[in-house]
Design a protein that fits this description.
The chain is of the alpha/beta class. Helices cover 45% and strands 16% of the residues. Helix 7 packs across helix 8.
């Protein structure tokens, strides 16, 4: 049993962190710049973001490594630095966490379609293994494979991470409700199909992130719990659904609004709750406050 599962097994609802990309851009990250390059070029700025979530009371923080697979990094000519970028991402978050929070290494999609033949499964597997090795070398307490839509890519990622480490592995998909009221990924995968794949591949924790505000996540968690009442569930909700205002995308849900639905989300069966796009340390602080009152 890994450290994350161990805490869940004690009956605690854990709070994860919120958005990272928004803050990197606020600090000057250009749209054509690799976010993970800052782990080496501007580690102090990355540390500030990680620390802000620890100060807000998060039990778990992630790493600045979402797009740090070699297949994604090659778009910036940085694929040769995969190990170094992931290791430094983990080390920065571990430094911020100290003994106050656990760190889960973030791994996102490669951007290549396995099922369309854009890349071979072997190449994807090798890339995810290399990314996971860097994160593990940097000292993470677990890995979260997140924002996935393709069950084949997610399966390869889980199996690649499992080849590298015995740490806890979480895998989250991004679902949207279709016209028939069914939650599916953009690849058409429903909740049941995703669950079956993730569990058979070796995921310890499953769930959903992005694509929905907290209201949408409540429905997804309920659906998961009908299928599997026991497996730990992680949810990273957006701060509401995105709106385009004055030439930019905004997420309208205030920290108070988001926190007001947390009890419903936990009652539905979530074990780890945190934020995705548009969420801030203040959103996390308010969630921590609500959960401490629930106890």
């Amino acid at each position: 049993m890994g450290k994350v599962i161990e805490k869940i097994a004690k009956g605690r609802v854990l709070v994860s962190d919120g958005a990272w990309g928004t803050f990197l851009h606020q600090k000057g990250l250009k749209t054509d710049e690799c976010p993970e390059s800052w782990n080496l070029q501007r580690p102090g700025d990355v540390l500030e973001i990680a620390s802000s979530y620890v100060e807000a009371g998060a039990d778990i923080i992630l790493t600045n490594s979402f797009g740090a697979s070699p297949l994604k990094l090659e778009g910036y000519g940085l694929e040769e630095h995969t190990l170094e970028l992931n290791r430094s991402a983990a080390e920065i978050s571990k430094k911020a966490a100290g003994d106050r929070a656990l760190v889960m290494g973030s791994m996102g999609p490669t951007g290549k379609m396995v099922m369309m033949g854009e890349v071979s499964p072997q190449e994807v597997f090798k890339g995810f293994m290399e990314q996971a090795k860097g994160l593990v070398d940097g000292g993470v307490d677990g890995i979260v494979i997140e924002t996935m839509t393709d069950p084949e890519e997610a399966r390869i990622a889980i199996e690649a991470v499992r080849k590298v480490t015995g740490l806890d592995i979480a895998c989250t998909f991004t679902f949207s409700k279709n016209q028939d009221g069914v939650y599916r990924t953009m690849m058409g995968t429903d909740v049941g199909t995703y669950l079956e794949m993730a569990k058979s591949a070796g995921a310890d924790i499953i769930g959903a992130n992005c694509g929905n505000g907290i209201a949408g996540m409540i429905g997804i968690v309920r659906e998961i719990r009908v299928i599997d009442p026991a497996i730990p569930v992680l949810v990273h909700a957006n701060a509401g659904l995105p709106q385009y205002m004055d030439g930019k995308t905004v997420f309208p849900e205030s920290p108070g609004e988001m926190a007001s639905r947390i009890e419903e989300l936990v009652t539905a069966g979530a074990n780890i709750v945190g934020g995705c796009c548009g969420t801030t340390p203040e959103h996390i602080r308010q969630i921590v406050k609500v959960l401490s009152n629930l106890k």
